[in-house]
Amino acid sequence: MATTTTTTTQTSAPNNTTTICFSKYLHSLSQTPHRLRKRMLATWTPDQELNQVRQRSGAEMKRKLKWYDLMALGVGGMLGVGVFVTTGQVAFQTSGPSVFISYIIAGISALLSSLCYTEFSVQIPVAGGAFSYLRLTFGEFVGYFAGANILMEYVLSNAAVARNFTDYLSSAFGENDPRTWRVKVDGLVEGFNMLDFPAVALILLLTLCLCHSTKESSLLNLIMTVFHVVFFGFIIIVGFCNGSTNNLVKPKGLAPYGVRGVLDGAAKVYLSYIGYDSASTMAEEIQNPSKNLPIGIVGSVVITSVLYCLMALSLCLMVPYNEISKNVAFSMAFRQIGWEWASNLVGAGASLGIVASLLVAMLGQARYLCVIGRARLVPSWLAKVHPSTGTPLNATLFLGLCTASIALFTDLEIVIDMISIGTLLVFYLVANALIYRRYVTISNNPPFQTLLFLFLLSSSAIGFAMSWKFKQQRWGLPLFGVSTITIIAFFNYTVPCLRHSTGWSMPFMPWPAALSIFLNVFLMTTMTKFSFQRFAIWACLITLFYLLYGVHSTYQAEEMGTGEDEVDPSSAVQQTKLDNIQVL
């Protein structure tokens, strides 16, 4: 009889557990409006972010990196992505021979954004990058929204870059058609029907490498980046020596798609500059961050921008823009000028460069997710740092599997515009946050003045961009161009600004940050309607996740002081099991 009672009790325990979990979750949802009011605009101080929040990862990340490690990480992260993935496609379809001018415009915008990142990273040296900067300035939801977009752009771009690795690797072995290394599945939709197993293998291999050690991964990247820069030099010299300036003006001139094509191309090649913000995520692992972070971040952007422009120019000197290959542009260019052996070499070198950029990007994405986990906006187990390796092991493995899954199916063309719009939005938000922090938080000015300035500046930038998009150059561009300069000048003259007493800070404020806002808005409006539709769907999904999980998790951790995720079913199950054992 006793045995029957025990069995019945054990059988009913899972049902009780499920009922309790569901009841608690429904109660949490009923409190959503109240919790949103408490958490959406909740901010942390830099001291809390550097100490209290960071301790949630358990073990600390190890400070082993120097300035040259950071610069190599920034350069390595950007080089492979930009030149080998986007140049051929943008030159052929969007900008023509003037693609190097597109890189100059995108580089200026990236440099301004990197200056904003640099000031934040020096003052708040944590691994969260833009997520931490925005959460401290504008509150939890804006930080979460930016962090989710950063993770989206990292995962999608890494998947696309890994597939491009297969293109160049097949070229290194003499294959003219990169699709020969992929497996076609007839039942799948076009664009998702070419399975790429080499890309998956590469991502999984790098994931295991990053789980082992940051310093060893950085050393590997440093070696590959030095080789990569030498390899770039070879391509640039050969292109300038064996190319012809006639290819820059034939068949339809330097800018066959007009100025509009140059600017549209700048928005697309902006994907090339994703890597530098991953350098800011290494703030917890670099020695003397106040000195080494500015050198590493800004230096990597400048070096990369110069190399991008020279590489794009050398490509267009070797081959007319209408004969450039969209997928393996540089390998095919050498083949077209008769350098068959160099074509295979370029394929191998480009493959190595892509490996370096993937290594850095995957390094950065794991640290972003780790810090978002510390904030309890995603399950807290993603925030754990392994005590022996000093790396965010769970976040690295989770994102590695996500990236590999997307790389298996998805073509580059499907994700490139969505990546760019997410990147530009995050950089736009960081520039806004820097102005607000400098003028309100540090200078103690009333928030209304700065918020009004940011609103008017963004509105004027949108007006200028819309005038350009809808071809209202006669009156729209002069009106909004002059109004933008007037707004910045008036704000600079009337509102005082203090600089940080310690560490590096942006000079000539608010001009660099304001110009960054203007350029990011302008480049965003050059995106296609389809890109905005895809982005809107993504924005709705991540907002829904915040409403269903994030706000309740952070409310439980911060407002109720439990430090645990209220809506985490696994923790509720474990607690109920303990209660049942005590009852029995």
From TrEMBL:
GO terms for cellular component: plasma membrane. It is a multi-pass membrane protein. It is found in: Membrane. InterPro entries: AA/rel_permease1. The chain crosses the membrane at residues 70-92, 98-120, 141-161, 191-211, 218-240, 297-321, 341-363, 391-409, 416-436, 448-468, 475-493, 505-523, 535-552. The keyword Coiled coil does not apply. GO terms for molecular function: amino acid transmembrane transporter activity. Pfam families: AA_permease_2. The keyword Membrane applies. Keywords: Membrane, Transmembrane, Transmembrane helix. Belongs to the amino acid-polyamine-organocation (APC) superfamily. Cationic amino acid transporter (CAT) (TC 2.A.3.3) family. This is Cationic amino acid transporter 6, chloroplastic-like. It comes from Prunus avium (Cherry). The gene is LOC110756454.
